[in-house]
Amino acid sequence: MGHTSLDKIKALQKNPANVRNLCILAHVDHGKTTLADSLVASNGIISSRLAGKLRYLDSREDEQIRGITMKSSAISLHYASGEKDYLINLIDSPGHVDFSSEVSTAVRLCDGAIVIVDAVEGVCPQTQAVLRQAWLENIRPVLVINKIDRLIMELKLTSQEAYTHLQKILEQVNAVTGSLFTSKVLEDRAVKEERAEEDKEEGDIEPAECPGLEQVYDWSAGLEDSDDSQLYFSPDQGNVVFASAIDGWGFSIQQFAQIHSQRMGIRAEVLLKTLWGDFYLNAKAKKIMKGAHAKGKKPLFVQLVLDNIWSLYDAVVTRRDKEKIEKMMMSLGVKVMTRDSRHSDPKVLLSAICSQWLPVSQAVLFMVCDKLPSPLDMTSERIERLMSVGARRFHSLPLQTQELKTAFMQCSSDDTAPVIVFVSKMFMVDAKALPQNKQRPLTQEEMAQRRELARQRHTERLAAIQQTESGEGNGQSGSTTPATTPGGDNTIGQIQGLPLKAKPEEEEEKETFVAFARVYSGVVRRGQKVFVMGPKYDPAQGLRMVRIVSACLPPVPHLACCTMDSLYLLMGRELEELEEVPSGNVLGIGGLEECVLKSATLSTSPALPPFIPLNFEATPIVRVAIEPKHPSEMPKLVRGMRLLNQADPCAEVLIQETGEHVLVTAGEVHLQRCLDDLRERFAKIEISASKPIIPFRETVIRPPKVDMVNEDLGKQQKVAVIHQVKESDTLHLDPSGLVTLTTPNRQATVGVRAIPLPEEVTLLLEGSADLIRTLEQAGQAQREGRTLDMSTWTLDALMVLKSRLEVLLQGRKWRNAVDRIWAFGPRRYGPNILLNSVEGYQRPSVWHCLEREKGEKEGGAKAEASAIRDFDNSVVSGFQLATLSGPMCEEPLMGVCFSVERWDMNFPTQRTHLDSVTEEDSNSLDASVSESPGEAAGHPEASGKAGGAGETPSHPEGAVAGAIQGRRRAEVVAGLVDCYGPFSGQLIAAVKEACRHAFQAKPQRLMAAMYTCEIMATAEVLGRVYGVLGKREGRVLQEEMKEGTEMFIIKAVLPVAESFGFADEIRKRTSGLASPQLVFSHWEVISSDPSWVPTTEEEYLHFGVKADSANQALKYMNGVRRRKGLYVEEKIVEHGEKQRTLSKNK
């Protein structure tokens, strides 16, 4: 097929029924880009000889050097099948786990996916991940089993063994798909049961309808009724292609069914059903019979398909039998060029034969057009899921929003249809690569004109040279030169006279952002204005406000307006300019860099809700601090990091309390790519990056029952080891672990106890951060006398969270604990709890806003609100500060509950009564000022999320300063300011110190971030893999042999702190035979105590008096303290001896 013109692609875009949007998904090095090369070569964009070697869609230099794809890139291809012409928008995605965010951006824009599996390695960890991502986005996959040539050349399998091996690979892929299907069915069943219970409570279903029935839980119920006929991969269904992309061949069994039906006289439909399976050909009866395995016969697939391919490889590559090759070429009807047949590399001849006999592009593109859905076939389930943000159900959206579902289903390109576009990512393009900046090809007239002008200049120069030679003096020659060469020399003079200052400006505008997007409805036109829906945009609120305001920029929260300056057709490394793009197509949009950060929903209708956020498999965990080598270039670094943040879907950029600029990435390879981009593309300056900043958490555990040598600890000994708090006149430690602290002015006393939270509660709080943040916003609004509109799904989710906490916090010490929760921390939504255990202080719970929202009377609510003590918020602020930086190494706390058991305030003078709500507001101002640096450092997006409820700050800076001065004036009047400062500040400091001392009174431990590590290795290098894991504190969880291969799969956990250089070391130690995949998994408590010293006789015998063996927790803790500039207790000189001089030695 020749090169497709741009006009042809524009015409194909207008017929969405023949458009296929698909991406290529696979594990790293399974052949995605090689297959993409073959598909691109079918359109004449690259030579078929270069397919697999050029890697056309890997346009970055580091992608070519490393040999892996790092970013998803798209190209539009034309495919003709019979009388139909198809447009295929193909997106190639990375397979490395560090770049799985790029896979998420690709999957969102597609309707189908080609999943590639290596015939030798089978289903790998990232294969499962991409199948899960495709499942979550409701897109239909087809399967390509690639690298079948490795079964012949590397594993030396016979055709029969290869058939068995391919069957097992299909079973593995179908097992993954089946488990996803089962979980979905059971989840749907659980939702139906919940709805049925709700209807039962409301009285819709009477219990009398089913009397005397015992409820028995049947886990398999619902699976029998669910249709899974189209779910699995099977060659006879036409959704599997067997291929070797590097050799250029691939086939589906439909092709062989048609070939052999003509030769054998058997109908193609019969062959299609029997070519794959336990069938064999009875030569005598000339019938296809069942039971090949039982009778020891060759299956049809082996006899009619694999044997032919095996014999071709044997003749061409192994034996190089020219006569047999000639016979095969004659029977196949294939002609090859002489230079291919005489080439020294037999693979060249093989690929020349196979690419004509079984071209892989034809097999794959036919399967794609036949089996994958068009944009018109988008399921209603997928549409509802895209529009249902969070726990919000589609049916709870406004009516106008629900009507947009029809626009999705119709995928109409009418002028009346609303424009709906989703931008999945922003990518940077060199300004020179934009079509409008490229030099357009010259017409014949222009070329002739320029040729004539060049001739004239050449003639004039010759004449000038002759005059110069014939002239006697220099003056004459000097006078004639400018006169005779006005066209040439003056132009050169003008070019040389251009100001040099223009160069930096050009460099600054050298790169521009293009949005990677898809049109779901309507026609997108160049210069069109659309709304940009923010992630917290509420269509109900937007519809109310847009009715009032008619301008393009309505003052609606999280809704902006922007213009699409230019539209592009994505053609791999090149862009083509378009005037309009109809619905159902993938495109690039220019001019959105000011409105869109990473991803966004665009529409002409304000009724459209924002699409659900992209599902990222990898969590950014690796942090480095970055600074320019020359401090004067700091503005360039800041600008470069802002551009990097916009261009990378997964990278995060933030500024810490210390002023460090920190880059957060998904892994080591991702970090290296981001640093290279900063140096070469975004900042264009020399930068220096710190060693990776390893995140840790601090926690407390229950007192250990055994010591370091597994001997039982007595109670007295245990208390002596744990309690390390030094008492003073203002600090008292109770034997039970209660810490009592008095403020410096002796006017308030606080008693705090630290209790470890159960692990399940910690995980629940960590996963519910967004819900807890919403709960805190609602409580704050209620205290300030405002109302915060909360949707029903948010209320339901909060009630579920509360009930789950009640279930998990069981036992005597947790009695009524959920209703006594004072606050969460740090930053008011973290995985730590402040508990109100003060006798006689019945303050409203954090869940109080839920009860009010559910319809309680306002009078009762106000009466309860008045029960809040003065300075209540100071206690909360002290708790927030304590949980933000723990006493071990100033890292955030995790899984700790601080129970306030005593809070006494006795003032020597009778102070005037301040209104509690006003006092609380002023204290919250003080707390916000004290917490702002940590907030800005930890979560730059928190400011956006916190303001997401629709309210704006009511005080400018002057008003805040005035409010603080007013509060201090009130405290002076009330006698609350003394030589120790304002009383609220003293109370905050006292609570913070009490929490820290209570934490130290318990057995304290560090929590390390952990990677899940999956390694594929052969038996020969298994011991070396274990050696590297053991050296880096890794722990092997599982080891299993991959069936049908010599490969072992090792599953292990590895601390993030030990992971840097791990992949390189594994590859070096195993000579490249093992490669790990690291994905952030969880936080894990390090069992060793960082402050441990030997105390028992057994420990002294085992560890020695000095106990100088490596303490891993202490090493991590000292490393963090040293980085933060904190005091580290260590000996600088050990075993120091007096120096002996030479004179004394004589």
From TrEMBL:
Residues 17-269 form the Tr-type G domain. Residues 438-457, 466-495, 914-959 are annotated as: Disordered. Residues 477-488 have a biased composition (Low complexity). GO terms for biological process: cytosolic ribosome assembly. GO terms for cellular component: cytosol; ribonucleoprotein complex. Keywords: GTP-binding, Hydrolase, Nucleotide-binding, Ribosome biogenesis. GO terms for molecular function: GTP binding; GTPase activity; ribosome binding. Residues 447-457 have a biased composition (Basic and acidic residues). SMART domains: EFG_C. This is Elongation factor-like 1. The lineage of its organism: Eukaryota, Metazoa, Chordata, Craniata, Vertebrata.
